[in-house]
């Protein structure tokens, strides 16, 4: 959420930033609401001054045993007017809060301006897999080995839900266990295993609500939401708290299943594991000072890259343009890994700096060293990394001519020494 004072003082710049984001949000009524609110507050303050004067006059008259009934009647009238003005201000505050809730974060100055066509590839790593035969897709490989079963998943639940069997189930478990070990033992993150259900306040804090409620899975009776990402519960660990600067940066990593109602368009890019309603992910979350957040952003990106490098997957780093940024992000890098069977680049991680946007919504502050005042932390998060698309890239990259799938060396200890995936 943007700061109200900042919005008031920089309204033209915010409108321009919304235009760069391709946002349709209309802020034309904000200035009028703000002016009306200021006018009401000024008038209310004058009435309160008159009431205080009347109160002093009443006290003087009563002290002199004189008739104060007229002034008492006037004070009651003033009190009613003040109450009415306060109610009107309260109504405007609600309207202004709703406007603030809908405004996306402002893009950092280093973010390219434009739609997704302005996204910038800033790095490429690895070489195209040398597959001398016609590569199969992960769906074909999964069916042949009987390790992916979408028909039975649809029977149990519905379309776009995965069912892993045998080797794929073990590989899925091995992947998140290994990733958590790398991030905790080498990158200094503290492991969290959060609830997979969160309340409305948590979803608001990270920016999913109110704008994206229709894309979320919500329980009918309890007003709880299935987590769309571990970012939500982990960021809300410190909601309504004041941290000491000495604690920062705080670094957490967490595995959760993730649930999203929206599964995208139809066609090649949605078949199999490309777009599913449920997927597993290891998340990285940081709480930092404003001065260090962009340095920590680059470090977070490197932590996610380490996973793809050790898996031996070809990938590229894409700096998203203003029109492609997520609602809460000020800057975001996507990591896209190559899937040779599909001949597609698949997003497997988004590494975002939200600056103070989420912290202001979730009221997460810190106390700078030597200061009595508090300030908002900066929050960051990134996938470190997400399945199931990483699974897609693994299966398709390491397939062999006989239909077997070789496992990267780093995963073999987590697969009891298996060199190839079996059914």
Describe what this molecule looks like in 3D.
The protein is an alpha+beta fold. β9 and β10 form a beta hairpin. An 8-stranded mixed sheet has the order 1-8-9-10-13-7-6-2. Strands 5-11-12 form a 3-stranded mixed sheet, with no helix packed on it. Helix content is 39%, strand content 19%. The two termini are 48 Å apart. The protein is elongated and about 105 Å long. It has 2 domains: 4-102, Orthogonal Bundle (Helix Hairpins), CATH 1.10.287.40; 116-421, 2-Layer Sandwich (BirA Bifunctional Protein, domain 2), CATH 3.30.930. The mean pLDDT is 94. α3 runs antiparallel to α4 and α5 packs across α12.
List the helices and strands and how they pair.
Elements: H1 4-9, H2 11-20, H3 30-63, H4 69-102, E1 120-125, H5 138-145, H6 150-156, H7 167-185, E2 190-192, E3 197-199, H8 200-206, E4 224-226, H9 231-235, E5 242-244, E6 250-259, E7 278-288, H10 293-311, E8 315-319, E9 331-339, E10 344-353, H11 357-362, E11 365-367, E12 375-376, E13 378-386, H12 389-397, E14 405-406, E15 420-421
Helix pairs in contact: 3-4, 5-12
Q: Tell me the number of structural domains.
A: 2
How many separate helices?
A: 12
- As a percent range, the share of helical residues equals 25-40%
User: What would you report as the Rg, rounded to the nearest angstrom?
Assistant: 28 Å
Question: Which whole number gives the mean pLDDT?
Answer: 94
Per CATH, what is the topology of the largest domain? BirA Bifunctional Protein, domain 2
CATH class of the largest domain: Alpha Beta
Estimated share of beta-strand residues: 15-25%
Helix-strand pattern: HHHHEHHHEEHEHEEEHEEEHEEEHEE
CATH architecture of the largest domain: 2-Layer Sandwich
């Amino acid at each position: 959420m943007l700061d109200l004072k900042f919005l008031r003082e920089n309204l033209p710049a915010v409108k321009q930033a919304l235009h760069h984001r391709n946002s349709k949000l209309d802020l034309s009524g904000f200035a009028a609401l703000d002016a009306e609110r200021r006018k009401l507050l000024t008038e209310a303050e004058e009435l309160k001054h008159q009431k205080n004067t009347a109160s002093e006059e009443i006290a003087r008259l009563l002290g002199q045993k004189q008739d104060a009934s007229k002034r008492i009647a006037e004070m009651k009238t003033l009190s009613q007017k003040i109450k009415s003005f306060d109610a009107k201000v309260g109504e405007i505050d609600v309207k202004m809060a709703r406007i603030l809730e809908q405004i996306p974060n402002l893009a950092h100055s280093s973010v390219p301006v434009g739609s997704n066509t302005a996204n910038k590839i800033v790095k490429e790593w690895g070489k195209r897999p040398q597959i001398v035969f016609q590569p199969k897709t992960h769906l074909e490989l999964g069916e042949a080995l009987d390790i992916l079963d979408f028909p039975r998943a649809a029977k149990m639940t519905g379309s776009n839900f995965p069912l892993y069997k045998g080797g794929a189930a073990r590989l899925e478990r091995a992947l998140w266990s290994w990733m958590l070990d790398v991030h905790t033992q080498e990158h200094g993150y503290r492991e969290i295993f959060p609830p997979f259900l969160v309340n409305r306040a948590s979803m608001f804090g990270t920016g999913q609500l109110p704008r994206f409620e229709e894309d979320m899975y919500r329980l009918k009776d309890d007003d709880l939401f299935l987590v769309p990402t571990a970012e939500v519960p982990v960021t809300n660990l410190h909601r309504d708290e004041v941290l000491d600067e000495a604690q920062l940066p705080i670094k957490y990593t967490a595995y959760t299943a993730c649930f999203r109602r929206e599964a995208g368009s139809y066609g090649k890019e949605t078949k199999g594991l490309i777009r599913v309603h449920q997927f597993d992910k290891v998340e990285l979350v940081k709480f930092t000072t404003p001065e260090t957040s962009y340095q920590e952003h680059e470090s977070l990106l490197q932590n996610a890259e380490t996973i793809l490098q050790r898996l031996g997957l070809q990938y590229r780093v894409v700096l998203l343009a203003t029109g492609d940024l997520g609602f809460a992000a000020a800057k975001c890098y996507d990591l896209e890994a190559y899937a040779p069977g599909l001949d597609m680049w698949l997003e497997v991680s988004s590494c975002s700096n939200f600056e103070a946007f989420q912290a202001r919504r979730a009221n997460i502050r810190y106390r700078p060293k030597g200061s009595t005042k508090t300030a908002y932390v900066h929050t960051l998060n990134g996938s470190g990394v997400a399945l199931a698309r990483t699974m897609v890239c693994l299966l398709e990259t390491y397939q062999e001519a006989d239909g077997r799938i070789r496992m990267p060396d780093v995963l073999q200890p987590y697969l009891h020494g298996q060199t190839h995936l079996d059914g």
